[in-house]
Amino acid sequence: MVELATDLTVREIARAAETVLGRNVQVTPETDIARDLAVDSLALMNIVMELEDRFDLSIPLDRLATVQTVGDLSELINKLRMKA
Amino acid sequence: MGLLDKHLGYRAPLDGIRAVGADPSAVRFDAVLSPTEGMLDGRKVILLGTNNYLGLTFDPECIEASAAAVREWGTGTTGSRFANGTFSGHTALENALARFYGRKHAMVFTTGYQANLGGISALVGRGDHLILDADSHASIYDAAKLSGAEVIRFRHNDPDDLAKRLRRLGDAPGGRLIVVEGIYSMIGDVAPLKEFAAVKREMGGYLLVDEAHSMGVLGEKGRGLAEAAGVEADVDFIVGTFSKSLGAVGGFLVSDEDNFDLLRIVSRPYMFTASLPPAVIASTLKALQRLEDDRDLRVRLSANADRLYEGLRALGFVVGPHASPITAVVMPDQATAVMMWNALLQNGVYLNLAVPPATPDNQALLRSSVSAAHTPAQIDEVLAVFERLGQEFGLLKHSLRASA
Asked: Interface pTM (ipTM) of the complex?
């Protein structure tokens, strides 16, 4: 069940990234957001904004400091969703 | 591996820009002749990117006030207000700003950047919510980091999006500070402040407006967008700068909020930096008086802004949504922007090359700012250069004017 939720979140992250970056995006939980996706801090903030709308959730930017991989981001989102 | 190796990703783009011609990050003026003209490699260029909105940098009264202050008080304060004391000019300027804005309190910072950094980071902290327009200036983002508050961005100039994000916060504990700018510095667009104020009234929280580019530009009295939009009562904090319409350097925060004096000991960017030198304080105080006394400055600024904006639009250039003292010409790509910027400089027009990530939507922009001190003839000269180069670079396919 937990795995399913993670898969779904990772898929939503890929779709949000596609919307913001305007190109096809393939990700796994191990994907390094800055290095593998060539996403700078501004694009990451825009992806997060998109994800906030998809999950109807607040994702404070200060929480991104520890996010490096898609898996980190997915974990943060799932944690925030449980809290909400 | 050197410490700076982590920045090497910037090497190729920077070298690429430098290879085309002049280095936009290091344009060196041999002399500045007036608010609108400088000397570059022995040639006169029109200054069209200096945010010198009222053209007061060479105002004789401001220069005299500044010169008198440096003679009487010396060249610098050599320390912070806390350690080295307040000079009478600092208090006079703070009183003048409070009176100008009709507020109880004002404090002066050493730069506009520090006004945001020091103001915002002292207003919100851990457990509070800071809600920012997505296109906020770097000083606001840096303030967010320094504050330790929970930071939420809303879509640029979108009051509905702000409301949606505030609603999401629900009844989470902690203070809420909404931050917007009067005029945005890159393309000169104005915030829908009336609508933002309505959202704030409905949903609660404090509202801070950064009037850096709108002070002395908008409003009957020149107080900025909050005045022009008729919502000053809804704005809890105003941040501004002395380095644009007031022609010097420095920044300020004004408010009616109780316990404002505590900011002077909790705001680190205020407390741990040297205060502004007397000469800067004196010229700023005089410039504020000039701004208040001479409405013609704003009339001329507005006429120049319209002349440049409408002129560029008529030529067929892609410009921002409405006329403003800042006009950004959208270039098809960065390479064209760099070539065009160099060609403009070669032809006597200095403005700003603005490229991602400093620009919204990854655009490559030629950003200009006009001054009340520009003559209509100077604006026309700029337009003529734009037309000639625009044709040369094939940028004027949809010109509304008959080409020569």
From this structure: 0.91
